[in-house]
Amino acid sequence: MEKFLLKNIENPDSADINEYVKAGGYKNLSKVLESGPKEVVEEVKKSGLRGRGGAGFPTAMKWSFAMADPKFPKYLMCNADEGEPGTFKDRPILEKNPHLLIEGMVISGYALGSEYGYIYLRGEYPEANDILNAAIRQAYEKNYLGDNINGKGVRFHLSVHQGAGAYICGEETALIESIEGKKGQPRNKPPFPVNVGAWSMPTIVNNVETLSNLPYIIEIGGEAYSRIGSSECPGPKLFSVSGHVERPGVYELPMGISLKDIIYNHAGGIKDNAKLKAVIPGGISTPVLPPDSIDCAMDFVSMPKAGSMLGSGAVIVMDDSVCMVRVAYRALKFFEHESCGKCVPCREGTDWLRKVLERIEYGKGTEGDIELLSDIAEIMSGKTFCPLGDGAAGVVTAMIKHFRDEFEEHIKNRKCSLADSY
Amino acid sequence: MITLTINEKEVTLDKPVSVLEAARQAGIKIPTLCYHEALKPFGGCRLCVVEVERMPKLQTACTLMSADGMIVKTESEVISRVRRGILEFLLINHPLDCPYCDKAGECELQDLVNKYGPTVGRYKEEKRKVPESHKDHIFARNMERCVVCTRCVRMCNDVQGASAISMMGRGNHTRMEPFSADSFNCEYCGNCLTVCPVGAILSRLYIHSFRPWQVDSEVKTICSYCGVGCSLVAQVRDDSIKRVIPEMGLGVNKGLLCSRGRFGYEFINSRERLKTPLIRKKGRLEESTWSEALNLVAEKLSEIKKTEGGSAIAGIASPRCSNEDNYIFQKFMRMACGSNNIDSVSRTGFAAAQKYFEELMGQGITANIIEGLKNSEVIFVVGGDPTSVNPILGLSIREASRRGAKIVVLGNAKGLERFKNVQVIPPVFKEADALEELLAGVSGARGVRGEKPDIDRGISALSGKYSGKSDIGGLEELKNALLDSPSTAIVFGMDLVQRADGHRAIFAVAGLTYLLEARLYLLSEKPNEQGLIDAGCVPDMLPGARPLNIHDFKTKFETAWGGAIPDKNGMTLLEIIEGAKNRDIKALYIMGENPVFNLPDGPFVKEALGSLDFLVVQDIFTTETAEFADVVLPALGWSEKAGTYTNLERRIQLQKKAVNALSGMEDWKIITEVSCKMGYKMAYSEAEDIMDEIAEVSPLYRDLSYREIGKGNCLWPYHGEPLRGEIHELPAMAESSSGNYGADFYLALEKPLFHSGTLSRRSPALMKICPEPTLKISSAAAEKLRLQEGDRVQVSTSVGSVEVAVSIDESIKDNKVLLSNNFEGKGVFSLLTYKLDPVTKAPGIEGCEVRIEKL
Amino acid sequence: MFNETVLKEIEEIKAKYPERRSALLPSLYIAQREFGWLSHEAMECVSKALNVPEAMVRGTASFYSMYKHKPVGRHVIQLCTNISCMILGAEKLVDFIGTRYEVQPGGTSPDNRFSLVIMECIGACGTAPAMLVNTDFHENLSEKRIEEILDKYK
Ligand SMILES: Cc1cc2nc3c(=O)[nH]c(=O)nc-3n(C[C@H](O)[C@H](O)[C@H](O)COP(=O)(O)O)c2cc1C
Ligand code: SF4
Ligand code: FES
Does the beta carbon of C142 lie under 8 angstroms from any beta carbon of chain A? Predict the structure, then answer.
């Protein structure tokens, strides 16, 4: 497939505006400024674009809610928090193709009637921060940003807001709190950000990859775009593949491609021909899959049927040197560390789950611990304030479901047989 | 109209509320922990989960809005399981030290666990350990017990507006901490204590001293500190007050309190309380019996009345005493002593201002409901910081600001620093000029109103005086804010009354009130400043603020009281003091007041009192003034007696008796005894009888009774007849302030948050919060004088000098330095001289140059 | 208090947002740059510059793990041990750094050269294990690579 999101990134100067323009960049913006904002929305609607941040919400629908709200100003937030472990798909756009994102944001802002954009960039990407700021400066110089874009009297201002190490700030309402200078704790919904978002104004939060699809949709038209990949969630998708594969990395592939295909064809199969043990298909918040379940289509609709979720499309591949209790324990350490502390089930549940998993992994587990884990996960599940806590519970439940024997073995043998690998 | 079904019960709502509130309205209780009625819903604890038809997941009732046709179930097997699970989660890190914890018995977690909780926990790991912190003088902080409901922080940020505490960290390491991590260094309102559901924050005043279920009685009464008159509950055990708490939804304060109200109650148990009457014998005050003391007072006063005439006798009433006390006091002065020389220390502020405002604008002009402040679009604050003088009123201003009101301030107001939109700092002591200029500007834009010709004339006269272009930074913006506002409130503090030209500021504010149709609020430091005026403790007015020189009023009271009232208006407070010095006044009767300390030019006041032939002081402590007395009579204080108080919005409230005093008598009772001995009969068996008489004789209080007052909604104008403004001729106004204020620093009065009058220094808790006075200086002054926070300095004026530490106050933006008048031997009044305002007769204390030397 | 240049920098940041509090996170980064870490004094300066109450500044700062809440060494190693890195040996690298450079997770070496912070995912899973030293990415780590890299940070 022809690459669009990752086009030209081998060029060492790909982040420079001149290179970007040379390769046809910003022409879609110019095109849009001629045709008008309504056309953009129309094309996005036709394209069937779904958000790439994890939830797969139809972008045109989110936009229409914000546009229906009469309040001004409206704010466009680019979610560049990319915190889901295993995910590194937005990074190449941010570092190698920043103008694609900027162009996408200006187009979106124009369509939405928003004149202010912010890129919420995770603190862990200091290089991307420098690159984005340089790119924004260039875009201002070339009049792709500012008060009179392309001389058309269109206004859009953009700046980078650097996060400071909090996974939860990827959640859109937490992101808004964080931009407002507060702790990144999720807000109650409704009201939704599209009505009452940043500084109480209508706010659209979209992922980096989502926004970067806009120039492409304009270029080929919504119609043509909707025919790429899955019919229900079309378009190109970035997959970050890591772990025990021959060729880890970010792959731009059509939505709906099979997980197996990604691992065995694109990523070159299991490293050193080892035996596949498990795959986390969409970042560590998504339920783990055993080898016999990986022949599934990677999109937002099919994955739940396969027992997991597409999430951010972060595929973590594990061979049989990996202890699944260890993985579950490490995942819960993450969730415990990242739980914002607002709601009881997540705050206390992740802590407790981690402690029980820790004792099982270190050979101190006791009879009944697996039931205890399931029970804690069940109380959490569906009762937390936001999906973070839910995700944590789901991870444990899936681990027990697919790898129960490993848990039992740990408890019975009072040790981890693979402990030496760490 | 929304109709929903909760537990098969139909609930109809007239406005949309959360499912939780809808259920409560229907009498169905849903368990909660992070929810609190004073706070916005949070949705953190998840205990309030309910089942809603057609919603796949359980919903939190506190955050879910009711919708028409909703079908809700608040109890089920599934729900109980979740609640049990959540409680088990909460207990994993909870120390379960209920037998030791002071919250046990009123702990929401304990109650919930009793009802829904697991019987045994399955958590085996080690619990989170956080040592209890006692590093603050008032708050004990135990973060092991904390359930991270964030109620304290939300209270502190969203309601109190102090923002002194925060939830620190994240996830399961979250804990509440003040900025310093140790001492709170906050406004010490203690409202966080009210909302903490567990024993995570406790007041050290009562910690380990009693259990919530061990109280003998809970008395709903009102606070004795300031003119707001907050409702509170005194919890009593063994005839002593163990704790003071507010009650949600109750009274003017609706469940909030300030530091003084909540922690300042201990003065009543002070060991320094007066126990027996004292009589001066051979120059020393010695204990005596009641009858000896009362006889002596009656004898002496009768003698002086006979030889010198009633006008040689004067009385100073008290804004800390009840309406009944004050009514009896003035009746005694007028009828038994034959003197109209009655005034109070309120003359230095509230009484002077209030009276002049009413003369200009009519009675009741200041009777505005505090709660209404919240709905103003613009609040103009001038003459003091409401958040320290009347903290609960200050909170309404902060709330208005959060709701989008514009707060415009003339002068300094520390507690509004983060809330104000416009601030104007006039040249030092030229506030009246700034206000007049503002008034001229407003009238320029609005024209005359034509309803009060005298005032219109006064305003027109001003208009000629100002060019219309202001040199004062921000005044134009302030003016425009006022002109643009559809609903304006003016909050007027007493700082500008204490000027030799204070009447100009009052006139200007009255003019603004009139032109803008604003609501006027006067700050009132003491609890019964309004009541004292209405009771007749002013030299020129009878009860109900009926002018003495209107013949009809006078004769009516004479008939009711059975005797003649002297014709001539009496002397005002400082005239009385000066009269004592000139020997026009021979005998002075002081009820519940400490003029030696509370009036400017302390040395002069001492000299004046020293010149008297006879001085009676009736008080609960041996004050600086009592040192000069011939007879000292021990009275009863707050919580030891019943009585009514009139707050600054003119709401009359009942202060109840909660404990029995060991000694002392009600103020009114002492006076009636003296009166009887002097031949004027007064007989009441309790305070209520006095109110019955007041209701009969004073047209303002017609038909009032304790029963009605007790309901808490006794609001102006009661059933009475207010008087229209009676002014016929404006008094001659002083010219623009002529003073040439070119000195480096001027000394001015500070009204601090943690102290009030001389009462608070007998409250150990308040003394711990603020143990000594400091000289507040601006950072510019600190730089100029090379002073640092805490440096000790000698502060000297022409009349005296004291040694204090300095503290740097960023909110001071002119060349004043401030000192409070609350600490023994270090009151600012001992350093200030005064000039009387010719109209209001309040002492002007401006322009006092001061020398500050580092020690 | 911050010097004029820093205050100007903060003013410029404030101008990017409709409300001054929004400048809090960026200002904390600046304070950290100026003071080396978020000391009490540093947070007081931020509080004054933004007119945001001190307790709010501290509370907010404490929520974010990338602020330095205590003094750190000259170089900060931020090593990821999340799953993709863990399964490729990141935890052994923690031990290695610990012995080789005398620095434990959350601590600073006695010579004040390095501080070590264990990170959740830093978005380098495709080139795991990975770390950031100050603001530089280093990927495909092994004990040998780490030695080569860290030796350059004096
Ligand atoms: C705990 C949590 C973490 C999230 N992290 C991210 C993230 O790092 N990046 C992102 O784009 N979306 C993240 N999301 C999803 C956002 O909430 C939101 O759905 C997304 O930014 C919307 O953009 P999209 O419509 O373009 O997908 C996260 C959601 C949750 C609940
Ligand atoms: S589930 Fe609760 S505690 Fe966890 S991150 Fe979401 S709101 Fe915070
Ligand atoms: S009361 Fe509803 S979540 Fe706490």
Answer: no
User: Inter-chain contact B174–A350, Cβ cutoff 8 Å?
Assistant: no
SS (H, E, C) C83-94: HHHHCCCHHHHH
Q: State the greatest distance between any 2 C-alpha atoms of chain A, in Å, as a whole number.
A: 73
How far apart CA A140 and CA A162 sit, in angstroms, is 20
Contacts of A among chains (3+ CB pairs under 8 A): B, C
0.90 surpassed by complex ipTM: yes
Q: Residue B728: what pLDDT?
A: 62
What fold is seen in the domain A236-319? Answer: Ubiquitin-like (UB roll) (3.10.20)
Residue to substitute from C51, C56, C60, C120, interface B, most B β-carbons within 10 A: C56
Residues B122 and A150: their CA atoms lie apart, in Å, by: 66
Helices (H), B221-322: 259-263, 290-308
Q: Do A85 and C67 touch (CB under 8 A)?
A: no
Helix ranges (DSSP H) in B71-196: 77-92, 108-116, 151-154, 191-195
CATH class given for the domain over A324-421: mainly alpha
For the domain made up of A17-226, give the CATH fold.
Rossmann fold (3.40.50)
Q: In this structure, are strands A116-121 and A154-162 parallel, antiparallel, or unpaired? A: parallel
What are the structural domains, with CATH classification, of chain C? 4-63 (1.10.10), 75-150 (3.40.30.10)
Cβ pair C62:B170 closer than 8 A: yes
- Contacts of residue B735, defined as CB under 8 A and 6 or more positions apart, other chains included, come to none
CA B270 to chain CA centroid, Å, is 22
Is B304 in contact with B687 (CB distance < 8 Å)? no
Residue appearing with tokens 């005093």: B661
Closest by CA position to C14, among listed A75, C6, B179: C6
Q: Please give all residues whose beta carbon lies within 6 A of any atom in ligand 1, as ranges.
A: A 51-55, 57, 59, 79, 81-84, 168, 170-172, 205-207, 210, 386-388
Could you tell me the domains of chain B? 2-75 (3.10.20.740), 130-269 (3.30.70.20), 278-346+528-709 (3.40.50.740), 350-522 (3.40.228.10), 746-854 (2.40.40.20)
Low-confidence ranges of chain B (pLDDT < 50): none
Ligand 2 pocket, residue A380 CB under 6 Å: no
Tokens of B1: 């109209």
- Contact present, B201 and B140 (Cβ < 8 Å): yes
What pLDDT, on the 0 to 100 scale, is given for residue B675?
Answer: 98
The answer to whether the CB atoms of B169 and C55 lie below 8 A apart is no
Q: For A143-200, what is each residue's pLDDT tens digit?
A: 999 999 999 999 999 999 999 999 999 999 999 999 999 999 999 999 999 999 999 9
Q: How many of the other CB atoms lie within 10 Å of CB of B259? A: 25
Nearest to C120 among A161, A180, A334 (CB): A334
pLDDT of chain A, 422 residues: tens digit per residue: 689 999 999 999 999 999 999 999 999 999 999 999 999 999 999 999 999 999 999 999 999 999 999 999 999 999 999 999 999 999 999 999 999 999 999 999 999 999 999 999 999 999 999 999 999 999 999 999 999 999 999 999 999 999 999 999 999 999 999 999 999 999 999 999 999 999 999 999 999 999 999 999 999 999 999 999 999 999 999 999 999 999 999 999 999 999 999 999 999 999 999 999 999 999 999 999 999 999 999 999 999 999 999 999 999 999 999 999 999 999 999 999 999 999 999 999 999 999 999 999 999 999 999 999 999 999 999 999 999 999 999 999 999 999 999 999 999 999 999 988 87
Which residue of chain B is at minimal alpha-carbon distance from C44? B179
Instruction: Please give the single-letter amino acid code of residue A390.
Output: D
**Global confidence as pTM:** 0.96
